[in-house]
């Protein structure tokens, strides 16, 4: 199934992404939000699968990622900074109901989006993430100092370059998930732009900056308890969220599903059918 590129205007710049449409009237609009340093192409397997199940899948590149614009000079990429552009983008597609699907960072952003705009999304599925990272007590000052130090440095004028797409995919697979080369190629093909004889990363270097502050566990509890819609968390047995943990109990309508696979299990052929079935079941 061929993906359609799309653009959504937003106050911080244009969001771009990939859309997979069903062959008939959709059951609803599905906003698919990728993980850190990923892009919309990470849904290249799951998107068509969900479209065949009747969903209109809108996989968006987050600001500073993939082909979306960078945020303006002076801006940062705190978790909350992603919310307004996404909500602005959703308002451009009226009619059908909206459902939220997030992987990793996209799932964490989903927590904030559901709190910020209750009623916008009917249901949500989070893949291998359940709330953001925390900073242990006693490390807040160091975290803040480190973050400000990065913000005071000039943004690099030259972005990372690779001799080939294959080299970029090998680098990605050797350092980050997914370690599978075919999945790494899919992500890096959208993360790069050809500049003469080299391939250059598109991502805004500022997405690598550390957070100035992180929520504490009590604040995460308050946020999760504020979510009224049903949320299904798909944990990856070889990934990050192997067990539900106490956070799961803070969701008023939470459901935890454990599936075999790594952190990018939605890009694994062996797990794709199971992930698709769980998403369809969660959004039924």
TrEMBL record:
Q: Show the GO MF annotations.
A: hydrolase activity
Report the superkingdom from the record.
Answer: Bacteria
Q: Which residues form the signal peptide?
A: none
Q: Which residues form the AB hydrolase-1 domain?
A: 30-150
Q: Provide a GO CC annotation, any one.
A: membrane
One Pfam entry name: Abhydrolase_1
Q: SUPFAM superfamilies annotated for this entry?
A: alpha/beta-Hydrolases
Task: Fetch the InterPro entries from UniProt.
Answer: AB_hydrolase_1, AB_hydrolase_fold, AB_hydrolase_sf
| Keywords of this entry | Hydrolase
Q: Which family does it belong to?
A: Belongs to the AB hydrolase superfamily.
Alphabetical list of PANTHER family matching this protein: MONOACYLGLYCEROL LIPASE, SERINE HYDROLASE-LIKE PROTEIN DDB_G0286239
Protein name as it appears in the record: Alpha/beta fold hydrolase
Species of provenance = Thermohahella caldifontis
The major lineage groups are: Bacteria, Pseudomonadati, Pseudomonadota, Gammaproteobacteria, Oceanospirillales
